[in-house]
Design brief:
By secondary structure, the protein is of the alpha/beta class. It has 26 helices and 26 strands. A seven-stranded mixed beta sheet has the order 5-4-17-16-15-6-7, covered by helices on one side. The chain has a six-stranded mixed barrel with strand order 21-25-22-24-23-26.
């Protein structure tokens, strides 16, 4: 019998609403949910392939436990017994920091991933935390922390009302948006142009987004911060700075002007390969627009000056009066945010509260660089114990981090490893225990993280579209049991994890004089929570305590889980609104334009004014039908233009004797790979592009479709030594490589280009 069910798509950051067709207990179709208050029926190829993703036959159905060197199917009880027996001795013998935790990107795409990893980290007490953020977005978190006092206070462009949008290092027609949650990003850009607005794209590739733009600037990779600094200089130099109504909330303007004094357009032009007149024009147009927003993403984060570039994105929004105003860049307000605190000075944001053992990388936002994971395992020092055990949740760093070969070997040397993963992939194949979560149709969904980045305030929740199959365990229960197993409470009721979080949260709320439940009895409040299980009770609590919540009866019209369930397509909470100074948590209570760590890093950027790299440099690229490496195992999401090829400019190809479609050898500091050449003028001269997430050719995996066309692992070209020093983010773009036809001797390099 056929029926339909609603589901929020978990396959990228757009969080579109889906209407699933269900036949005989399986998803047979997916279309956009036209009633969804946020996505209004938009769907992309990933969402349309939801059924194929859900029913991938290579998904693991039962736990795996390593016995006599081989992974074998086991019961859930056997699996968690093995986890407790493997992790606890490491903690007791070597301390909690000897246990590393790796969190992959999919954690922020699941309800379980939003609720339980913080409990796991706190319960274990380890400082050895590594996540996908340090191969992606950490520079934005650090710059936001330094500017606003809160690493999660990220201002997003007001896409639906802006008159002028400048994108740098972003390709939302392929990514659907990132650190900017916006279903139908392409439609929103077209609407911007239709109402007479201007779209400018700065990117070394002529991407689909760049082709839509009014102006495309093909910048030299890695020089984003120089270009943005020169634009900011121009605003000061030509008297175009106008802070608008936010002026009382901003400090450091004069110091900033002095700090940027060397970054003239004329000084930056050569390094950026953008003429000085063009840089000045960009700044003038930004200042002249009725409203404007600058938005930077992964291309401007994964470069040597990623934090400075991310900082300058917001600096430009401040200097043109576009921070925190409609049509500019605003701070979203999610329904599960904590009760807004009164405006005023906060505790600020600190970097380097501890360091990695081997190369002394400072922590950022509680995390160490993922690029340092291998050395933290395989290198002994006098600075504490190496990582001897690892917990990987939805993570495949062998493909996603630099120098996967070294990490591959290091993982094999661990005393113990557990992976929470639906696949036996390049990383989880090393685990002693693999705990597979169910397919997405069998899980509930609420976007905790992405609603804090959404271009419109709204709230949605979908219960599982299908019941759990026999023998499967809910991902929320898997992670709750994992918390118990590694913290010495193995065998306790997993509901105790949720109950403990609820008790502690309500206890804090009742002691907080700014909370709507101040002075009330936490146990009485807990008895009012609704929901079918612990995760739903926690969601109900967060909604009730949030900025739109009922405050446990204080506002009868406020949000509760019951009210949300009565609106299956979601509840619209309105457009983004100005919020300053309330979100600021800096010690001054103001936007601090020139934080000390930023000022200390500017000499490094100043030195880059004189750099003129020769030869070829590498950049990555995204595809609309791909997000994470596991999607290459879904036939509906591979093939066609979603292939692992090296994009190369025709003139570069001719100089090197490279022919379209023929294999080439690409060599970097971390190693070499081969891939077919794709000769195209869609990439500027001197730049080659290879997509991420490929390299499915290691033995011992169970991803048959991905292994049939494995592609090349772009991150193997990197040795992990290049990091943005402030954030610890890996430098993935603008790195030098050598390219030669596969038939040519290895010694033949690109002299013809230099």
């Amino acid at each position: 019998m056929s029926r339909t069910a609603l589901r929020i798509c978990p396959l990228c950051e757009a969080t579109c609403g889906l209407t699933l067709t269900v036949d005989d207990g399986r998803v047979t179709g997916a279309r956009g949910d036209r009633g969804d208050v946020f996505s209004k029926g938009f769907i992309c190829p990933k969402g349309a392939a939801f059924g194929a993703v859900d029913s991938d036959p290579d998904r693991l159905r039962t736990p795996l436990v390593r016995v006599d060197g081989e992974l074998r199917e086991a019961t859930w009880e056997e699996a968690f017994d093995a986890v407790a027996a493997g992790i606890r001795p490491v903690v007791e013998r070597h301390g909690p920091h000897a246990v590393g935790i790796v969190l992959g990107n999919p954690n922020v795409h699941t309800m379980a991933g939003g609720l339980y990893p913080p409990v796991l980290i706190a319960g274990l007490g380890t400082r050895s935390l590594f996540t996908a953020s340090t191969v992606d977005q950490m520079p934005k978190h650090v710059s936001s922390g330094l500017l606003f006092g809160d690493a999660n206070a990220i201002a997003v462009p007001d896409l639906d009302r802006t008159d002028h949008l400048l994108l740098i290092g972003a390709n939302p027609l392929e990514s659907n948006g990132s650190l900017c949650t916006a279903p139908d990003f392409p439609g929103r850009l077209k609407a911007l142009k239709a109402r007479g607005g201007t779209l400018t794209v700065i990117d070394p590739r002529r991407t689909r987004t760049a082709r839509l733009a009014d102006r495309h600037i093909a910048i030299r990779p890695g020089t984003d911060a120089l270009l943005l600094a020169a634009m900011a200089y121009t605003l000061f130099d030509e008297g175009l700075v106008d802070l608008g109504e936010r002026a009382p909330h901003i400090q450091g303007l004069e110091e900033l002007a002095a700090a940027l004094d060397d970054f003239t357009p004329e000084a930056a032009a050569g390094a950026c390969d953008v003429d000085a007149a063009g840089i000045r024009a960009l700044a003038r147009e930004l200042a002249a627009a009725p409203t404007a927003a600058v938005y930077g993403r992964i291309g401007s984060c994964t470069v040597p000056h990623g934090t400075l570039a991310s900082w300058l994105v917001d600096v430009l929004n401040v200097l043109t009066g576009n921070l925190d105003r409609p049509g500019g860049a605003l701070f979203p307000q999610a329904a599960t945010d904590r009760t807004p605190r009164p405006a005023g000075p906060g505790s600020g944001f600190a970097l380097g509260r501890w360091h990695s053992r081997v190369r002394r990388h400072p922590e950022a936002k509680g995390e160490l660089p993922l690029s340092a994971l291998a050395e933290e395992i395989d290198t002994a020092t006098d600075e504490g114990e190496p990582v001897r055990a690892l917990i990987a949740v939805a993570a495949n760093p062998v493909l996603s981090a630099p120098d996967g070969d070294r990490l591959d070997k290091a993982l094999g040397s661990l005393d113990f490893m557990v992976s929470v993963d639906p696949y036996l992939n390049e990383t989880s194949r090393h685990a002693h225990v693999v705990l597979p979560p169910p397919p997405p149709a069998q899980s509930p969904h609420h976007d905790f993280a992405f609603n804090t980045l959404a271009v419109r305030n709204q709230v949605r929740y979908t219960r599982p579209a299908l019941p759990l199959e026999a023998g499967r365990m809910a991902e929320t229960e898997i992670l709750a049991r994992l918390v118990l197993a590694v913290t010495g409470m193995h065998g306790a009721d997993p509901a105790a994890v949720d109950a403990t979080v609820i008790d502690r949260t309500l206890g804090r709320a009742t002691r907080d004089p700014h909370s709507p439940v101040h002075g009330r009895d936490p146990q009485d409040l807990a008895s009012l929570l609704t929901g079918d299980n612990g995760p739903e009770r926690r969601l109900d609590m967060m909604l009730r305590l949030g900025p739109y919540g009922d405050g446990f009866g204080a506002d009868p019209d406020g949000l509760t889980l019951d009210r949300l369930l009565a609106h299956p397509h979601g509840i619209d909470l309105g457009p983004l609104r100005p919020r300053l100074p309330q979100p600021l948590k800096t010690r001054s209570g103001k936007v601090e334009l020139l934080p000390e760590p930023i000022a200390a890093d500017l000499p490094r950027l100043r030195a880059a004014l004189d750099e003129r790299p020769g030869g070829l440099v590498l950049v990555g690229r995204r595809h609309l039908r791909s997000n994470n490496s596991w999607m290459h195992n879904v036939p509906a999401l591979t093939g066609g233009s979603n292939r692992c090829t090296l994009h190369m400019h025709p003139e570069d190809a001719e100089a090197l004797g490279v022919r379209d479609g023929e294999p080439v050898r690409i060599k970097g500091a971390g190693g070499e790979v081969t891939a077919p050449a794709e000769v195209t003028d869609g990439v500027r001269r001197g730049v080659v592009s290879l997509p991420h997430g490929w390299g499915h050719d290691r033995p011992g995996t169970r991803m048959r479709h991905a292994a049939a066309e494995p592609g090349a692992n772009v991150n193997q070209l990197l040795d992990g030594s290049l990091l943005d020093p402030l954030s610890g983010n890996a430098v993935l773009n603008g790195v030098p490589v050598d390219v030669a036809p596969l038939t040519a001797p290895v010694t033949e390099k690109h002299e013809a280009l230099t």
